Structures are given as C-alpha cells and as structure tokens.
Amino acid sequence: MAERSALPGPDRRALIDRAEQFGLLFAWIVVIAGFGIARPDTFLSWANFATIFGSQAVLVIVTLGLIIPLTAGDFDLSIASVLSFSSMLIAVLNVQFGWPIWLAIAAAMAAGITVGAANGAIILYFRIHSLIVTLGMGSLLHGITLWFSGSQTISGIDIALVRAVIVNRFLGIPWAFYYGITVAVLIWYTFTYTAAGQRLLFVGHGREVARLSGIRVGRVRFGALLAASGLGALAGVLYAGTTGAADPSSGLTYLLPAFAAAFLGATAITPGRFNAPGSVIAVYFLVTGITGLSILGISTFVQDLFYGGALIVAVALSQLVRGREERLG
Amino acid sequence: MTQAAPAILEIAGLSKHFGGAKALDRLDFSIRRGEVHGLLGQNGSGKSTLIKILAGFHAPDDGARLHVAGREVALPLTPGQFQALGIAFVHQHLGLSPHLSVLENFLVGRHATSSRWCIPWAQEARRAEALFRRYGLDIDPHQPVDRLSSVARAQLAVIRAFDQFERTPDAPIRLLILDEPTPFLPARDVEHLFRLVRELVADGASVIFVSHDIDEALTITDRITVLRDGRLVGTAETPAVTKGELVKMIVGRAVDLDTMRPAARDHGPVKVRITGLTGASLDNVSISLGTGEVVGLTGLIGSGYEDAVTLIYGADKASAGTLTIGDNDHEISRMTPYRAIKAGMVLIPADRLEEGIVPTLPVTDNATLPLIGRWAGGFLVSNRRKRDAAAAVNKAYDVRPPDPGTLIGNLSGGNQQKVVLAKWFQTSPEFILLIEPTQGVDVGAREQVFGIIQTMAENGAAVLCASSDHEQLTAICDRVIVFARGRTVAEIAGNEISKSAIARLTYSALDDAA
C-alpha cells in the first residue's frame, strides 16, 4: 500500500523472482563482456574458455559434493581433505606399489566413502554438530595424507588417467568438463525429480516437520554425508588426472572457493535453495572473474580477495532475499 | 446425525502411566462413521496422551483393546502404522515448511517413505489443483507456503491429511485427527476451515477435533467427549448439551483446590500504567498496577495473555502503546529489552533452559550476569567478588546445593528458578514480568518461589504474571485479568479469586469477546 509501482502486485513479484533467478547468469555475461572489451584478443579466445572449463572441473565437483549435505542442513569441511587423500592414494598405489590405475581409483573411491560413513556415524551417534566433526576429520585426513606420502608430491601417474581427464577433448574442451556437467545433471535430477531429493530438502528446511511427516531424518543426513565424501573422492581422481601427480596439500585450496560457489549458486536459478545449475554457474562466474583479472595483470592475491568477498556477498544476498520475503509475507 | 452409524474406531480400558503419574485411566472411547467428535479437557487431562498413543508415539499400559472397523488391532501401534489403518493427523503447528512450495509440502508425506525416481510435477500439480478446487480452495500449488494466509495454511494441512486417505485406498477407515488447529487463526477464518472439515466429512471421513475452545466444539462437532485428569467425564450428543454443562465437565466441581490465598493487602497508589497496547494478537489493551500489587494474566492458548508480557518488555515488537512507570512515560513500540531493564523492568521467561539460564556455566556466572555491568572499576571483574555475590544469593534464596561453583544445569528445576529470580531481583526492579514462573518446578520449591515473588511485591515492586496455571494464579495474585481473542474480557480480585473461578471465566470469556 505504501509504495506504488507501475506494475500490479503479482506481475511485479514475478519480475523480481525472474531477476533473482537469472541475476547470476546475467552477471557472468557482464563480466565476460567487460573483460572481452578490455582484452579482446587474449580473453575472448576459445582456447581461453576451453582452459577455464576444463581446469575447473575439480572445483565444480567439490562444490556439487558440498551442496548435498548443505541442503540437508549439514556442513562438510572434510571434503577438500578427502580430495587430497584420494588423489594421493591413487598416486601412491599406482606409482609406488604398481597397482593398475583402475584398481587404485576404486580404492580411492572406497576410502572416500568410508570417510563419509565415519563422519555420518560420529555426527549422528554422538549428536555433534557436523561443522566440528568434519573440521576434525579434515585435519586428521590431512595428517594421514602427509604421513603416507612423506610430505612429497608424487608424480608419474598412469598416462591413461591423464588422457581420460585432460588430454582428450570434445569440441576443444577436455573431458573433465563433461564429467563435472554429468554429475551436475545427476544431482539436479535427483534434487528436482526424486523422492530422495524431497526428503533431503525437508530435512534441511525443518527437521521437525520432516520427522512428523515420517522422514527418517538420520538416514537422510547419513546418506548426504556419504555422497559428499564420495564426490570429494571423485574430485580427487580428476585432480590426479589433471596434473598427473598428487601433492598432499593443494586440495585444501578448494574448500573456500567451493563454499563461495555453493552459497552464490543458492542465490540463483532456484533462489533460496542450494542447486546444481546455480553452483556450476557460480563456479564459472568466479573463475572467469579471476582469470580476467589475472589477464589484466593483477597479481595472485586477487584469488583470495575474490573468493572470500564472493562468499560474504553471497550469504548477505541470500539473507536479504529472505528478509524481503518475510516483509512481503 | 445418524444415530445408527457404526463405530469405526473403539478403544476400551486404555490406561497410561508416566512413572507414578496416571495420564490416562481406563478410558473407553469410540468414533462413529461420518461424525465430528470433539475432545475437550484442560492441559494435562490426557487428550494429547490419547492422540500420541494413536500416532504410535506412546505405548499404552497392558489391558487396553483397540478395534478398527470392527477388527481388533494389536497395541501398541508402531510409528507410522496409523497410515495403513487410515488415520491422518493435523498437528497444532501444522507441519508445513514455510520456504518450500505448497506442492512440495502437500506431497512430503508420500515422499517420506516411497522412493519415486521420477516425480511428475506437472501431473501432481494438476491433481492437487483439482483436489483444492473440489473443496473450493483457491491455492496456487507453486507458490511458497509463507506467501499463504494463515487460514490457507491450515486448510492446506487439513487437505494434505485428507489426501493421505486417497493414497491408501485399502485402509479400513478414514479418520482425521485435528489437534488444536485453530488457536492461531483469527475468528472469522475459523469458519472457512470448518466448512472444509464439513465437506470432508460429507465425503466419508470421520474427524476427532481436539480443542480448548468450547464454542468451536459446539459449532463443529456431532458429539463431544470430555476428559479430566486422565479419566472419561462423559460423552454427549452436541445438540443435547449446553456450554455451561461442558464447562462444569471440563473444570470439575472440586473446589478444595482453592488453597492458600495471600492475606489481603492494601496496595499503594498506581505505580505502573499500560495504555493502548496493540501488537501480536493484542488489540488496545490497558492495564494498571498498584505499588506492591501482583496481577495475573490468563486465558486460553492464543488468547494473547502471554503476548502482553513480551510486548511490554520489548522482546516482541508492539505497534502501539504507552507504559508509565512512576513518573516516566515509555513508548512501548520502541521498547527493547535493553531499554526495559534501564526503565526498571525484569522479565523471567517461561522457557528456562533456552532463555533463562546457561546450563553449562556455574551458578556464579549465571547469578551475577546482570550485575557485572554495574560494578564500577572498569574492565576487570573480580572473580572473588562474583563468587561472594553468588554465595550471598545462594544463602538468601536457599539454593541447594549452596556451592556457587556447581553448574546450574545440574540443579533441580526449582533451584534453577530460584537462581533466575534471584539474579534479576538483585537489581531491585520496579516492575517484574513473569511468564509461567513455576513451570517444571517441584512442589516444595514452588512455595519458595511464591515466597520470593511476595517479598518483592512487599518491597514495592509491581508484578505482572502471565500463566495458564490457575492454582498458581490463585496462590500469588491480588487480581487476575482474563484474556480472549486479544482483549481483556474479565477481571476478578481478592477473595473472589479461586482456581475454579478462574477456569470458569477463562472458558466462558469467549462469549464476551465474540
């Protein structure tokens, strides 16, 4: 009543909803256009984009792994350590013990899922907040990784894996990109069209409502943590394939960017919910910004600046959206 | 209604003990096909225990028998078994997740257990829309629940429960249990909800309508069962019973509970005056208190009596109202807890564990929190001084054990409450606000808590106590004000106050408010 607008209520609301859904996508296009005008020759090349798409598949998968427990209301801070652990396990088994690469990958995946089971069991049995348990688990895993790798980078991983991840290309983009997109589609489908996705959503949005509706809340949370660690291990496989080597620490640099992308992604496509397409767009939005700035010649501290800033802006933005909803409601 | 309609659900000899306390005592109860059956009784009468047994939440004592559609069903029911039997629940808080869509909330019960791999959203939306339209509900399945009005939310919860029957066509009966769905609805909207309930009944469902509200029960039900202290008082055909008779059944005749009244005291001049308080469920409420007067506020759930206290203190936001303490005026819409304390108020909240104490800290820290700011000397707080102050509190208020180093979470409820009262009363407040001050407090400590409140009043403070415990109000109040539908509707003072008088006023107050 207080303010008058050109559009009647429902239309105006639909417009706001639409703007929210596609705001991030629009921002990405603006960023591309901006750097494109500034550096048309280097930035706007297909090779540049192919590199961006291919090299960031690891971050895409870590982000997708995070949004599963986040949707259920749990944090998984150990996911980046699972990544390091899994890639290092592949390197050690394949290079030092001479295991065939597929067996090493299977072992890494199994180890990752075991970590997820341990997280879930501790969180649910002792009723401890996931933040604390996974923080501890992450540090523990990091220690184990340093220990069995002798704190060294191990290179020489089977070239077959490197080929399957980064060398082979489709439309000029490494296969890694398509792995990430495949996982995104699977998660998008699960979140949108399956009963399991609905259970996850209700557990995150109101545990009591979920419980009264007959959802086995503990089982859902356990499954979400298992899936997150599984995807963390998968990201480790891609990491090993991208570099042909594993180092004990660099996985940790993915944690903050993944959280930034997850929360930024939750302000888009289906605002207010962690979602797969939003996460993928958010990852590439952030990486495009960083790549563009470094092409402009700005030094490496820009990464931290950008990711940290994005996380805070994303969380503030989603709070703003919620606040507006409450006022309108 | 059809006299000859067969019983779809029969309970015989249902008892339930919690420790030594009898929550239900040999209850017999039956529901006919196609009736709305009211279930009335005060808090603790056994209504919710009965409902929870049907939900498979509690196991009854041995010896109870349950027949559904004429066939015996073994007790206890397993959690979730109610679905297969054809019983659906609408809980008081409706069980809706506000940020998710109407359609998602509508389907959550189904997705809780089934594993569907491809939810046909468009088809489900059409089905939901068709069902909504069949019952005259104008609800868009795609909008989030928090954009619905409160009555539309209640209707959604009811129709969702009804939809459970459509999903379980093999269930022997269709029984909808509405557990106090109306206290948060404005009066004019209750009729919309009732229309929906009547239509569902016309389509073959039976309904158990659990309520505090006798008028609503008289409007919607065919029969009414009243419970008191876990026992069946009686079941009546609704057209054959009057409101007065129901009140008598609910409250009972027992007058011997009108115990221990404080000796009549003369109050000083008016000390606190509240005028035009509006906000939350309240509409233009005015109250004044004399020096040393203890005033009780009561009413049914949702009548607004609790809101008065939290609004005055600024814990919830009021839209209008003026508070005068002594010579100072305060705008209540701008009140915050910080300003309230500055103005000489304290609030003792009902939810002690959440709002009143920090259970994992020792008594010392809990008891001295409001004082720390007053102790001059700047940044360093002397631990010895804190300990001495806490020890003095423990002594003065007889906290057991008296060691101030004990974690407050390890004290009994009564001793915790003594610390909470002591902690605030050290600041010598002028205006004391209490909400359910003896909830979860054992009988012995209860008397001591009453004593502390009396002492504060004798020292000149004005006390406002919101409570649904009529016995407690009788024991401490000089005057009791009854609320209904956001207004003050009745008032009794001095020796007129008794447990039964308060209960009678509470239940008959609705007439005056309508």
Q: Which labels suit this protein?
A:
heterodimer, A: 329 residues, mainly alpha, two-stranded antiparallel sheet, 4 strands, globular, disordered N terminus, B: 514 residues, alpha/beta, six-stranded mixed beta sheet, 17 helices, 20 strands, 25% strand
Topology:
The complex is a heterodimer of chains A (329) and B (514).
Chain A: H1 9-38, H2 40-43, H3 46-55, H4 57-71, H5 79-96, H6 101-126, H7 130-149, E1 154-155, H8 159-167, E2 169-170, E3 173-174, H9 175-193, H10 195-205, H11 207-212, H12 217-243, E4 245-246, H13 255-265, H14 276-295, H15 301-328
Antiparallel strand pairs in A: 1-4, 2-3
Helix pairs in contact in A: 1-14, 4-9, 4-10, 4-12, 4-13, 4-14, 5-6, 5-7, 5-12, 6-7, 6-12, 8-12, 9-10, 10-12, 13-14, 13-15, 14-15
Chain B: E1 7-18, E2 21-32, E3 36-40, H1 47-54, E4 65-68, E5 71-73, H2 81-85, E6 87-90, H3 102-113, H4 121-134, H5 150-167, E7 175-179, H6 187-202, E8 206-211, H7 214-220, E9 223-228, E10 231-237, H8 243-251, E11 270-279, E12 282-290, E13 294-299, H9 305-313, E14 320-325, E15 328-331, H10 337-342, E16 345-348, H11 352-356, H12 363-372, H13 383-396, H14 413-425, E17 431-435, H15 443-458, E18 462-466, H16 470-476, E19 479-484, E20 487-493, H17 499-513
Parallel strand pairs in B: 3-8, 3-9, 6-7, 7-8, 13-18, 13-19, 16-17, 17-18
Antiparallel strand pairs in B: 1-2, 1-4, 4-5, 9-10, 11-12, 11-14, 14-15, 19-20
Helix pairs in contact in B: 3-5, 5-6, 8-17, 12-13, 12-14, 14-15, 16-17
In short:
The complex is a heterodimer of chains A (329) and B (514). With 329 residues, chain A is mainly α.
What does this protein structure show overall?
The complex is a heterodimer of chains A (329) and B (514). In chain A, the strands form 2 sheets. Chain A has a two-stranded antiparallel sheet with strand order 1-4. Chain A contains 15 helices and 4 strands. In chain A, 77% of the residues lie in helices and 2% in strands. The model of chain A is unreliable at 1-7 (pLDDT under 50). Chain B has 514 residues and is of the alpha/beta class. In chain B, helix 8 (243-251) runs antiparallel to helix 17 (499-513) and helix 12 packs across helix 13 (383-396). Chain B is globular and about 70 Å long. At the A-B interface, helix 10, helix 11 and helix 15 of A face helix 3 of B.
